[in-house]
Structures are given as C-alpha cells and as structure tokens.
DNA sequence: GTCTATACCCCGATAGAC
DNA sequence: GTCTATCGGGGTATAGAC
C-alpha cells in the first residue's frame, strides 16, 4: 500500500506476496481491507518513528540532526528506485471520505512524529511555543520534500529541505533564547 | 481523481458525473484512463499555476505573498471539508511504476510552480542560486503542509508553513544581498 | 459523434470442507 | 486455523447500431 495506495493494492496480491492464503488474511483481519490498511499505517508509523528517533539522537544540535535526516531520506528513496515514499501518505490519501479510521491513523502518525521533533527541540533549549510550531513545519517540509523527490526522481528537494530547515531552526534559536 | 486518487476513481463514475456516456469518454480520450489522468493533472497544473500567479502578484514582498498563499490554501481546504487537496498529488501517487506518463506530468507541474516562485524571488532581487533553492523548498513545504492539513483536518500546518517560509525567505534576503 | 450492450477480468468478501 | 471454491459486483475497454 505504501507503493500502490489503498485502492491500487488488492488483498489477493497481499496474500500472495505474503505467502498466506486469502482465508488466513480474513481470519487475522476480520475487518477486511480497512483493518489491514489501518494496521499498515500503524506499522509505517512505528517504522518512521524509530528512524526519526535514531536520526535525532545522532547529533546534539537539532538543526544538524534534521538536516542529516533529510539527506538520509533522499538516499533511501533513491535506493528504492523512487518507489518507497512515506509509508502513510499513499495509503491514507484518497480514503478520507470513505474510511475515517484510516485517516485517523494517519493523523496519529503525523502527530507522533511531530512530538518527537518537538521533544528534541525542547531538550535543546528552545522555547516551548517555538518548538511546537517548528515541529509542525519540520514534518510538513520533510513530507512535501519526500513527495517532490519521488515525483521528480531527484534527491534535490530533500537535500534543500534539510539545508533550509537547519537554517530556520538556527534562526529561531537565536531569535528567542 | 483529486479526491479519490487514480485507482479509486472509475471511468464510469467520471462519465456519469460529467453527464456524458461511456462511449463519448472513450471517443475523446482514446488512450483510456491513463490519458484521462494525464489531462486531469495538466488541468490541475494550470489551475494551481494561475492561483499561484495571482497570489504572488498580490504583494511586492515575496515573503508576504507566500505567507498569504499558505493561509488562503488553508481556508480553501477547510471550505472543501478537507477534501480538495493538491490536484496533482492524489492522482500521481501510487502510479509511479505502472504509468510513467502520469508521473512525468506531475513532475512538470511541480517544476512549473517552482519556476513561478523562482521568478518572483529573482524579480525581488534575490541571488539566482538562492531563488532557485528557495523555490524548491517553498513548493515542497506548501505541498507537505497541505497534506498535513488535510490529514489532521486543521489549518495549522499551512498557517505555520506560511509563517516559517516567510521568515526563511527574509533570512536569505538579508544573508546574500 | 452518441449511445447501449457486452466481453472479459479482477475486486472484496464469504462459505464450508478439512 | 488453513485452505479452495465461489458469489455478486464493479472495473476497463470495445463493438457496433444509430
């Protein structure tokens, strides 16, 4: 679903690639495709949260850590031949009206990631309001740059997003000490 | 397709809502669903390009114009009940592997929008390299914030994106005069 | 150019043997 | 719990009358 989206991915395809039978899938996911999608998003949520935690722990300076994060995302995306984008976006996009539970799971993922950045910024001494606001834009920008990188098959959007986010963060550190 | 994505939107649904018969659709779009999707993306491309042109012309200061742009995007998104997001993203996402032409049209749209921001920044006296790089991040951030706003059903990501992009742009104006 | 009918296929979901 | 068979419906696309 990360690659093909909710509607583009069939349960039969999933069961085949997983080496399970169709009956097994419906045994463990009685809620059908919707439940499967929610679990897929939660899985992607945890996955990216772990990645983000690792990257944020990689440098004391939050600006430096975020910039490294963006670069790594670009490298990983290229390695996947521009196919493995955000594990939440593709699944959630387009299902908003039909399946609120899916959208809710996606919102939770975004909120968790934001929380991780927020905590890092506060730990580095940023004002709470600044940290909260900056965390929003850091996630938004990473998300958008990942999208742009995927569409244009280039690491450039993510590289520049890293550079600019770092400058923005440093600007706020100086602005409200 | 803007709302439901490529796979979530049926040609029968399109023909019904358009008041046309299925035969007519295939008469004017012999390339079938793929051709329809490419034209839909080109349409969204022009639509947003006109919106962006209008917003950029609304203020001499690029930072101010971009901030107003983000706010307006948020208001429009709320007015649509968080349904009408970027007219390109939903259609293009998930079709990368199967339909390169769709992805190519999406890449062209992003490039055109970037070009508009780039031109505005250069016209305001920014160094060419700075303008080019900033245009990348402006589009990425607006795109990601629109996504985040849609998922969380809140204007906050777009409002903050506007604020932060404005500060970033002003920083560069001062940095390299 | 416009319309209806239909071919052909795969979808999600379920039934029921084992 | 695991598997196969199948249901009902909708998908894209086409054929061919008008």
Structure at a glance:
Two copies of one chain form a homodimer. Chain A has a single domain (34-175), classed as Orthogonal Bundle (Tetracycline Repressor, domain 2). Chain A is 74% helix and 0% strand.
Can you offer a commentary on this structure?
The structure is a homodimer of 177-residue chains. Chain A is mainly alpha-helical. Chain A is 74% helix and 0% strand. Chain A has helices at residues 11-18, 22-28, 32-56, 62-79, 89-92, 100-123, 128-152, 156-175. The longest helix of chain A has 25 residues, at 32-56. The first copy, chain A, is elongated. The mean pLDDT of chain A is 96. Chains A and B meet through helix 5, helix 6, helix 7 and helix 8 of A and helix 5, helix 6, helix 7 and helix 8 of B.
SSE map:
Two copies of one chain form a homodimer.
Chain A: H1 11-18, H2 22-28, H3 32-56, H4 62-79, H5 89-92, H6 100-123, H7 128-152, H8 156-175
Helix pairs in contact in A: 3-6, 4-7, 4-8, 6-7, 7-8
The structure holds a DNA duplex (18 and 18 nucleotides).
State the major sheet of chain A: none
Largest interface: A-B, 49 and 49 residues
Number of helices in the DSSP assignment of chain A: 8
Which H/E pattern describes the elements of chain A? HHHHHHHH
Strand content of chain A: under 5%
Provide the CATH architecture of chain A: Orthogonal Bundle
Unreliably modeled segments of chain A? none
SSE-based structural type of chain A: mainly alpha
Number of strands of chain A: 0
Average pLDDT taken over every residue of chain A:
96
CATH topology of chain A: Tetracycline Repressor, domain 2
